Amino acid sequence: MKRYCLFLTLLLLSMSAMTLWAAQKTGEINYDQARWDPLHFQPAIATATNEQCLNCHQEVLKREVLVKSPAGVVAVNSLAWYQTLSTYEGPQKTFHQRHLTENLAKKLMNMKCNTCHQGNDPREQAVIPPDHEQTQYTLRKQVNPEICLMCHGDFPDYKVMGLPSEWNTSGAIFQNNCLLCHAGIRSNRHQVNYLNAEAIETAGKENSDVCFGCHGGRQWYRISYPYARHSWPGIAKEVPEWAKDRPTESNPRFRITNQKTANK
Question: Fewest 10 Å CB contacts: which of 147, 161, 182, 237?
């Protein structure tokens, strides 16, 4: 039965690809045909380039922030918590602009469309309006929220680091310099393909908000992300209690070794 289902799935995808190819030749592609484009599925999505994605989804970078919210709040008169950091530049921008085209993103990050988007199978989405009998489906399955958590989680680490309080209130004790300690502690960091590690280290020396931004300063969640605790020269052999459940390697999809074969 499983083999039959797999065969049927491959057959449907093949038929969809052939239909889409034929439609592309004639220039007549409707929404449903585009929806089932193989680029939206594994394995094609894993190596999709930004250019391929933005060829159809370019509107995500062209949209602008509303001047006034539906509730009547004027955008320029309202600051989000992350806009109070010194690294935040210019007026408010949309979500995709901040992650792909703004100065800080281009300088410190190497975000790609498929860093967050790993395909979207319509067969796994709940119908709209939702049918409460079909609880096996979920809404808005386009992005795994763990991806967001990697840079937008809580920052409880000050407790295990021995700080008297969170960084925004105790940073002055350490000259507002994260690298005052971390030049020699946890020195193997940011080695993932969605960040520019060298640029982060350089910028972090000049402004601690660069570090704090992703380690609590742009918090969207009440929980923290369990960053991989990579080994570094001089690391103690004994693993502290708080780190015993931490992974020692980053997710394979984000390791630097994969950067040459994907997301160019």
Answer: 237
Is 3 domain-assigned?
Answer: no
CA atoms within 13 A on the CB side of 69: 9
Whether 69 maps to a domain, the answer reads yes
Please give the Cα distance from 151 to 200 (Å, whole number): 13
* 179 CB neighbour count, 10 Å cutoff: 16
Residue of 77, 95, 69 whose CA lies nearest to 152: 95
Q: Which helix (H) or strand (E) holds 3?
A: helix 2-26
Q: What is the pLDDT along the chain (264 residues), one digit of tens a residue?
A: 556 555 555 555 555 555 555 555 556 778 888 888 999 998 999 999 999 999 999 999 999 989 998 999 898 888 888 888 889 888 888 999 999 999 999 999 999 999 999 887 777 776 777 677 766 666 655 788 889 999 998 887 788 788 888 888 888 999 999 999 998 888 889 999 999 999 999 999 999 999 999 988 888 888 888 889 889 888 989 998 888 888 999 999 999 875 444 444
Q: What are phi and psi of 67, to 5 degrees?
A: -65, -35
Considering its fold, how many domains does the chain have in total? 1
Expressed as residue numbers, the domain containing 193 is 37-264
Residues 149 and 224: their CA atoms lie apart, in Å, by: 7
Give 74's strand partners: 68
* Residue at 50 is within a domain: yes
Q: Distance between CA 96 and CA 56 in Å, rounded?
A: 15
DSSP-assigned letter for residue 217:
I
Structure token pair of residue 251: 């997710």
